[in-house]
Write a structure and sequence with these properties.
By secondary structure, the protein is an alpha+beta fold. The chain folds into three domains: 173 residues, no CATH class; 112 residues, Butyryl-CoA Dehydrogenase, subunit A, domain 2, CATH 2.40.110.20; 264 residues, Butyryl-CoA Dehydrogenase, subunit A, domain 3 (Up-down Bundle). It is built from 21 helices and eleven strands. Strands 3, 4, 5, 6, 7, 8 and 9 form a seven-stranded mixed β-sheet that branches. A two-stranded antiparallel sheet has the order 1-2. It has a two-stranded antiparallel ribbon with strand order 10-11. The chain starts with 15 loop residues before the first helix and ends with a helix.
């Protein structure tokens, strides 16, 4: 026996796109022929970088967090945020992947109309498998582009959008959302920052922002009050704040400190004071919160993408390790308990995978004017934000344990992945906020009705009587839920929406069943159906074979 951690069969993936059978099977049917022809080479190149150079760059950027330099050598306040070179290399890879140009370049938008979100997020998914810290400012940038496109005047769009859809890193502008304040946190209606008109649509913003993600951004959307007498979110307006003023001097934002975060350490999150900071009113006065929700919705989808990507990376790291680690006389993956755990993690991942891509598809269709999909998206967004964020933390922790002590050591990518994933259940609204959001969506839209109709349609088409019966039970309870008093309704909403999520995921596994993926969809469906029924009684259980487990992981090395 050799004195080595891994046996000679160890051969980790050299390309995350080529290795991912699950992703490739899905995209084969999700993209048009023209889109595949254009974007597959981009995904192939990004997959190669994500599997090789990005991992080392990501670990370097994680260990060398941004630094806030308050003053220069002459004592002048500069509020300069400086990054390790690895950060800029990671940013360059993102820009050159065309994840934004395929979505926002006028020619691309026209050429790939109706599928730009899926194209962009396919690149984002591969990218975030290696770097979730930089994926945060990329998320903010896409949100800024969305608001520019929907609400800003043509002059600003013509001036600024090319800096987002460029494929040249030197010309790229990143974005940010300055939303959270000390007074409210998730309760945005408690915000205090004020805005005073100076001329036309120009305002001076004053007050403190408590969590300024991507504090170094070139383009910022910030909420503020033009009239302190109008309470809550009704009094909020939204402003575009540019890093530099027309005379090229810095727009005044005084950063007190950078947040010392548990994870996503490569990006800069700060506490900042706006003091006569110049902002341009976007949209109409007092429409700020409604406009900001467009960016918030997108950022919640990004959070779910990052969660899914990170959980995929954690599973793959464990899987590649277990296929090459000898323990107790055989390869680790041959042990029944390890196969059982990989079955569970793979099933959770697969259910999350199809739920996420269903949501991204809804976003594409809603953007194209489909009102039904827009209503479905309203409830799916908080659903995936909660489910995938929480699941990803569990999957990463269990993957770490499968690797034993070495999985806990920072030389590997797994501890960083775990730390990065911990932010997702908290950022952009906690799990409780997502439950309340789904509750509001169910009352104000037809999203819940449409999802139930979709489950029924799938169950009928697949002749699955169990799914039909479970849906009927769920719909029966839903009538009771919405007749409850508010406190009882809120307390009952969490198990209600968690069950809805699980039921919908089971339906989506059936809906996505095809000859190319039956090796994993059927096993995942059977496992999760058993879990849904709370089948925890003592009984004999037969683990999947090694080959069946490998099929569920869906990864070529």
């Amino acid at each position: 026996m050799k004195n080595k951690v891994l046996n000679d069969n160890h051969s980790p993936s050299k390309n995350f796109f080529q290795s991912d059978l699950i992703l490739r099977n899905y995209l084969k049917n999700a993209f048009s022929t023209e889109a595949k022809k254009y974007f597959y080479p981009k995904l192939d190149s990004l997959g190669k970088e994500a599997a090789t150079v990005m991992t080392d760059l990501s670990l370097q950027a994680d260990k060398n967090s941004p630094e806030l330099v308050k003053r220069d050598k002459w004592g002048e306040t500069i509020n300069d945020i400086r990054f390790h070179p690895a950060y800029w290399e990671l940013m360059k890879i993102a820009v050159e992947s065309e994840m934004f140009s395929v979505k926002w370049h006028p020619d691309m938008r026209k050429k790939f109309a109706g599928e730009t979100q899926r194209l962009s997020f396919s690149a984002g998914f591969i990218y975030a498998m290696s770097e979730m810290g930089v994926y945060c400012p990329l998320c903010m940038t896409d949100g800024v582009a969305r608001l520019l496109d929907l609400y800003c005047d043509e002059a600003d769009k013509k001036r600024l959008m090319p800096h987002i859809y460029t494929d040249k890193a030197k010309d790229f502008f990143t974005g940010a959302m300055f939303l959270t304040e000390k007074s409210g946190g998730s309760d945005v209606g408690a915000n205090l920052v004020t805005a005073k008109n100076i001329k036309g649509n120009s305002y001076h913003l004053n007050g403190e922002k408590w969590f300024c993600s991507n504090a170094n951004a070139d383009l910022i959307f910030a909420l503020a009050r033009t009239d302190a007498n109008i309470p809550r979110t009704k009094g909020l307006s939204i402003f575009l704040v540019e890093k530099h003023l027309p005379d090229e001097t810095k727009n005044p934002i005084d950063f007190f400190r950078l947040k010392e975060k548990m994870g996503v350490k490569s990006n800069a999150c700060a506490e900042g004071m706006l003091t006569d900071t110049v902002g341009t009113l976007v949209g109409k006065e007092f429409e700020g919160f409604a406009i900001m929700t467009e960016m918030l919705t997108l950022s919640r989808i990004y959070t779910a993408v990052g969660a899914l990507s990170g959980s995929r990376r954690a599973i793959i790291e464990a899987y590649q390790f277990l296929c090459s680690r000898n323990a107790f006389g055989k390869v680790a993956i041959e042990h029944a308990l390890i196969r059982t755990k990989l079955t569970e993690l793979s099933a959770l991942y697969l259910a999350n995978f199809y739920l996420l891509w269903r949501t991204i598809t809804a976003l594409d269709k809603a953007d194209a004017g489909n009102e039904r999909e827009k209503e479905i998206l309203r409830i799916l967004t908080p659903m995936i934000k909660k489910r995938l964020s929480e699941n990803s933390v569990y999957i990463a922790r269990e993957s770490m344990e499968l690797m034993g002590g070495i999985g806990y050591i920072e030389d590997t990518v797994v501890p960083k992945t775990f730390r990065d994933l911990m932010v997702n259940p908290i950022w952009e609204g906690t799990g409780n906020i997502m439950i309340l959001d789904m509750l509001r969506a169910s009352k104000k839209s037809k999203g819940l009705i449409f999802i139930c109709e979709e489950i029924a349609k799938i169950a009928t088409a697949k002749k699955d009587s169990w799914l039909i019966l479970e849906l009927e039970k769920f719909q029966s309870f839903s009538k009771k839920l919405f007749a409850m008093q508010q406190d009882e309704m809120e307390a009952s909403a969490k198990p209600f929406y968690e069950k809805l999520t699980e039921l919908y995921q089971l339906a989506l596994l059936l809906a996505n069943f095809n000859e190319g993926n039956k090796k994993w969809t059927r096993s995942a469906f059977d496992y999760l159906k058993n879990a849904y029924n709370n089948s925890n009684e003592l009984s004999a259980r037969q683990p999947l074979s090694v080959n069946d487990v490998k099929d569920m992981v869906g990864w070529e090395m």
